[in-house]
Design goal:
Strand content: 15-25%
Bound molecules: adenosine-5'-diphosphate
Shape: rod-shaped
Largest sheet: 6 strands, antiparallel
Number of strands: 18
Strand order of the largest sheet: 3-2-1-6-5-4
């Protein structure tokens, strides 16, 4: 802070005298440096602004032999100033200044805080700038020498500091320099504390928001220690935040009760960033949760993770009812449709007399539609069973090549009709064995293979092969075709129920859009994956990946 002696408005204003610095005795110097050292320490250990300023006031007041030292802040409207911390002064004066603050721009402190300059007087009661109504109070307090210095932070005035002496007091250049250093330290303390309080209030707002979320939220640090466990997480898991925050839940905690066991299971779910997974809380809660896993980042660096627990029990129940309905309706439709199919094939076969060309045309078209409806109803039945959890998966060790060959044989006829080069490359070495449900997997493989045949134009190829990765951890069934491919923009929807790409609808009208959904669900039940690469008008390759 630059002191500008010209700004001392009073005729009794203090002029700075450089030479005075050298007259200060060594004992005083020692005291002052000790006080300065102490004030810088308060900045490091204290966080409450009033405590810091009171301590600074007291140590500097004592070192300079002043009667009072006080710090001033602006009123909220910035039109006046009042005392926030003081040394030597009776409390009532500080309190009085809160009730009746000094107008900004008046008196020594009001000027210092308005103009950003030091204002001083060596004899306050006799200074003509003192408004007469103040005289009795000033006399009662017994102060004469006064200097007020603004607290500045990057050109912004954020407060003021005044030092009062009992007797007439000429301020030396040295005293002014010390006062300025102290004012700077105090300004830093005030600015830091305000920043800290702002951050704290931001943090509190964020925590309050997270606490009031309607979903459960658990935040972990990089070591898996729980940092936050909101109210909804407490309700869902029947645990108190107080019990779990700061802990890294492990297998030993399971014994503490069902809440802990569930928390351990949830924490142990193997989840990639930004994925979600369903999780069933066993009785007595019997809830279904959708658990999303998200990274917590600080400027691109991962510093932890969070799990969001959404209670989807009601949605699941409603869905179950819906699929139950679809399942019953499909069952009811399947019998009459099958009878219709037999009736039509008897008619087409001439069991009831020969048909003319027109009649057999109508019959074969109707038979095709009936076939389509039977397939659709079967797909719907599969979907509803999968969704309801009604499919019991009977996992036994089996031969993947064998079931693939059976599906391949069934499709040979359709492939030949389309003049496709349809091949199955059997593996040279025996595949590692793993468990699967042959019946369900046949449906999944059938859907993928039938698609390759249906979506490949005449004279193209469909190639089926097997692969094992180097570590023999995964077996792949690979279905490659030279077909119409899947347009880039539509690839992300391909596994959704009923979705059919525009180019597919044109060349094969009979699809239901359920085949790949069923296949991928069946693969999930095998802890496997179904994925693909595809280029429009070039072809697609579908991968069925099984863990061994
Ligand atoms: P669909 O009954 O329509 O075949 P699927 O669920 O089996 O239903 O497939 C969904 C959509 O994925 C198809 O309609 C088609 O757009 C696309 N698709 C699947 N397999 C292939 C493939 N091998 N080549 C091109 N498109 C494919």
């Amino acid at each position: 802070m630059k002191l500008n002696a010209k700004k001392f408005t009073s005729s009794m204003s203090q002029q700075l005298r450089k030479g005075a610095f050298f007259k200060t005795n060594p004992e005083n110097l020692r005291k002052i440096f000790f006080a300065l050292e102490k004030t810088s320490k308060f900045l490091a250990v204290e966080s409450d602004i009033n405590t810091i300023l009171s301590k600074i006031a007291s140590s500097i007041g004592k070192a300079l032999g002043a009667k009072y030292v006080n710090f001033w802040d602006f009123t909220p409207d910035k039109k006046a100033v009042y005392i926030i911390a003081a040394y030597g002064m009776q409390k009532q004066y500080s309190q009085y200044s809160i009730k009746d603050p000094i107008e900004l721009g008046t008196m020594w402190v009001g000027k210092a805080m308005k103009y950003g300059q030091a204002f001083a007087t060596y004899d306050l009661p006799n200074d003509p700038n003192l408004p007469p109504p103040w005289l009795p109070a000033v006399k009662k307090q017994g102060v004469r020498g006064l200097v007020c210095i603004p607290l500045k932070r990057k050109n912004e005035i954020i407060g003021g500091m005044c030092i009062y002496y009992k007797g007439v007091h000429e301020f030396t250049y040295f005293e002014m320099s010390i006062a300025t250093i102290v004012a700077n330290q105090a300004a830093t303390a005030v600015a830091n504390t305000r920043l800290f309080n702002d951050l704290l209030s931001e943090k509190n707002k964020t925590v309050a928001t997270l606490q009031s979320l309607k979903d459960g939220l658990i935040i972990y640090d990089m070591d898996g220690k729980i940092l936050l466990f909101n109210h909804r997480a407490e309700e869902i898991l029947n645990l108190k935040a107080l019990e779990v925050v700061g802990k890294s839940v492990n297998a030993d905690d399971i014994a503490k009760g069902p809440g802990w066991a569930n928390l351990f299971k949830i924490k142990s779910l193997v989840q990639m960033d930004f994925t979600s997974q369903e999780f069933e809380l066993p009785k007595p809660q019997a809830k279904v949760l959708d658990i999303s896993y998200l990274p917590v980042r600080e400027q691109y660096r991962k510093i932890g993770a969070m799990q969001i627990l959404r209670d989807i029990t009601k949605e699941k129940e409603a869905e179950k009812l819906k699929y139950n309905f679809i399942s019953i309706a499909s069952h009811q439709l399947r019998t009459p449709l099958t009878e219709l199919k037999w009736g039509l094939s008897s008619l087409a076969g001439g069991d009831f007399g020969a048909l003319n060309t027109k009649q057999s045309g109508v019959i074969s078209k109707t038979a095709r539609i009936t076939e389509y409806m039977i397939n659709l109803v079967n797909d719907l039945l599969d979907v509803s069973k999968l969704e309801e959890g009604g499919f019991d998966f009977n996992m036994v060790k089996g031969d993947l090549v064998k079931i693939t060959r059976e599906v391949f044989d069934q499709l040979k006829y359709s492939a030949a009709k389309r003049e496709l080069k349809f091949t199955l490359e059997e593996p040279v070495e025996k595949l590692p064995e793993f468990k699967f449900d042959a019946q369900r997997l046949t449906i999944a493989i059938g859907n993928v293979l039938a698609n390759a045949v249906n979506y490949t134009l005449p004279k193209g190829f469909v190639r089926i092969k097997f692969k094992v990765d180097n570590q023999r951890k995964f077996v792949f069934l690979i279905v490659e075709d030279s077909g119409i491919g899947i347009p880039d923009a539509e690839q992300k929807f391909i596994f959704s129920k009923f979705y059919r790409a525009k180019n597919a609808v044109k060349i094969h009208t009979d699809g239901s859009g359920l085949g790949l959904y069923i296949a991928s669900e069946v693969m999930k039940k095998h802890s496997g994956q179904l994925y693909f690469t595809s280029k429009e008008n070039k072809g697609s390759t579908f991968y069925l990946q099984f863990p061994v």
